[in-house]
Amino acid sequence: MEGLMLAMAGAALAAGLAGTGSAVGTGIAGQAATGVVAEDPEKFGRLLLLQALPGTQGIYGIVGLFLAIGKMGALGMGAMSVANGWQILFACLPLAITGLTSGIAQGKVSGAACGLVAKRPDEMGKGMIFAIVVETYAVLGLLGTILLLQNIS
Predict the structure, then answer these.
(1) Residue 17 is part of which domain span?
(2) In this structure, what CATH number is given to the domain that contains residue 32?
């Protein structure tokens, strides 16, 4: 039973922390976008895309949660060892940590990109590229979690 609880904690951390990063990040970008839309409502569509970018970490967190639950099922939830529980918990940490930190960082970059769109609407692509660079680390965190989960037996 203790092994299962540890594994569940890992899955919950992956989803919860990555989701928190997305919530904070989209909030930061949304605040910046709201200020711009107050001055120029026609920029709403462009800014909505910038606000949505930090939301992907939450999606990755849910993917990690499902992968961890799948691994728990494969190992036998009722008879999971404490060692397997710790393995799953630690395997979920790359996604949990990078999801939290990159979601917030991407929100800050996306918020700054909203300021760029306010002054130079044609430069939105450059602002998106800056935000997507941060996304790379969320993807790497997800990849790390996937690779670690696959190597638990």
Answers:
(1) 2-150
(2) 1.20.120.610
